[in-house]
Amino acid sequence: MVELARSTRTAPDDCPGAGSSRCAACAARPFSVCAAVPDADLARLEAIAETVRLDRGQALVREGDPGTCVYNVTAGALRLSRLTPDGRRAVLGFAFAGDFLGLDRAPAWYVTIEALEPAAVCRFPRARFETLLAERRELETALLARASDALAAAQAQVLALARKSALERLASFLLSLPASDPMRPPPAGHIRLPMTRQEIADHLGLTLETVSRSFTRLKRAGAIRQVSLTEVEVVSGGALARAAGS
Amino acid sequence: MVELARSTRTAPDDCPGAGSSRCAACAARPFSVCAAVPDADLARLEAIAETVRLDRGQALVREGDPGTCVYNVTAGALRLSRLTPDGRRAVLGFAFAGDFLGLDRAPAWYVTIEALEPAAVCRFPRARFETLLAERRELETALLARASDALAAAQAQVLALARKSALERLASFLLSLPASDPMRPPPAGHIRLPMTRQEIADHLGLTLETVSRSFTRLKRAGAIRQVSLTEVEVVSGGALARAAGS
DNA sequence: CGTTCTCTTGACCAGCATCAAAATTTGTGG
DNA sequence: CCACAAATTTTGATGCTGGTCAAGAGAACG
């Protein structure tokens, strides 16, 4: 949680905002792979973990960076994106508290990860994390489960991009959002949108204008009501589900 | 698995074409997760493995089937697809010799898997496979690596679907195909296409007409030459890469 | 408040889908 | 091996969804 991150002390300059972690008190632990590490072994985790705080817009890793660290999100929201050589952007997904970053063992990152809003992540040097992985089997099992979930999510996105209309994509996206942020569940029937229209567009393979028009259509259809730019209320879940193509 | 779920045919073990396997002699082993199992332990694998042969068009699993088995492809090519409730189809990917099916630990399959051509897979009851997994760590590590690769592939597809034109998608697809079938590398500069235009279209989020037109454009641009409907020759790799948007 | 950024709305356009038909390939029985 | 039927692919004509360009309306921030 943001409060937790704020309470950690600021540390050495090689990574702004870095500080030691206290895993036992971490609010994100129940939703994280770290939940697989028994309390008795938490010291092992803490020994290699450092908290990194990010401001809105700040990059955690960039496409092409060497994969020297892996991360666990503890607060806020991040965006995972990729660029075509000529600069078109696709947002592969969003990461919230509890999400693990670095499932792939590739030598370099093939995604860019940036904070949508003030965020905090736990940073682990990859080599040491893998040492721990070799000792704590349940950690590897938890990672495999995470990887499976990420794969399922990516394939759901493929279905949406390949065969759904703009309206269906937006509706499906809105329906899927609440489940992704376990630590900050919005009031029932409300959806928090920490990302801009452009970011939603890049995620859904559309333009920001089309996303905006689709929002308008959902409002006119009585499916949603716009509380603010960053929050919508689901007026009719049925209408929204129907717009999503069930 | 499909036989378990819906078909009550006459085969001795209710699975046509099933037979015991000899892993040591398996041509697909070097490319499979099974490569992680040392020769000394192959008997453990063989004890729970059964070979299943599939004819062209035959389904291995269908969306919604209980996930009672996992599979390893040993020959041929398969198609992984998903349907929207109203019947639009997206082909999530293709599987070739060496590919593992069942990475997700979901209770039910969320994809339908069918043979593009005569194919063979190794079938493992999931429960027994997981027992083996618990004993042979390197198997789990290999699965995690596979899951990472599958995730990277799905995310590359997301980028293509979200931000690439029809021509770019087809060219990218053609460039990516040869790498996916390690056991049957086509003659250098040739690409085997065991799938129909409709299947390519469903994979690229297009219609078969658009795929056909894009083939024609690639031919006219001097990038490829059509040897037959199921094989193309790359005349100019540069032109093809350029069409793919690098 | 005014500057700036983001979002919404409108007018027009292009790429791909749809509908339709011809050409080619594949499969089957004689 | 040939002839015919069925399926797949290619090509063409036309239309629609969503992109592009442009202007105006809210929000956010100093």
What does this structure look like?
Two copies of one chain form a homodimer. By secondary structure, chain A is of the alpha+beta class. Chain A contains eight helices and twelve strands. The first copy, chain A, has helices at residues 2-7, 42-48, 126-135, 137-163, 166-176, 197-204, 208-220, 237-243; strands at 19-20, 50-54, 59-61, 69-75, 77-83, 89-96, 100-101, 112-115, 119-125, 190-192, 224-228, 231-234. In chain A, a hairpin with a 2-residue loop joins strand 11 (224-228) and strand 12. In chain A, helix 6 crosses helix 7. The longest helix of chain A has 27 residues, at 137-163. Chain A starts with a helix and ends with a helix. The model of chain A is unreliable at 1-17 (pLDDT under 50). The interface between A and B is large, with 41 and 41 residues. Chain A binds a DNA duplex (30 and 30 nucleotides) through residues 165-166, 196-198, 206-213, 215-216, 228-229.
Oligomer: homodimer
Q: Estimate the strand proportion of chain A.
A: 15-25%
Structural Rg of chain A = 19 Å
Q: Most extensive chain contact?
A: A-B, 41 and 41 residues
What best-fitting shape of chain A do the alpha-carbon axes yield? globular
Q: Helical percent range of chain A? A: 25-40%
Contiguous uncertain segments of 5+ residues of chain A: 1-17
Record the strand order, biggest sheet of chain A: 1-2-9-4-7
Largest β sheet strand count, sense and barrel closure of chain A = 5 strands, antiparallel
Order of helices and strands of chain A: HEHEEEEEEEEHHHEHHEEH
In DSSP terms (H or I, runs of 4 or more residues), the helix count of chain A works out at 8
Distance between the termini of chain A: 34 Å
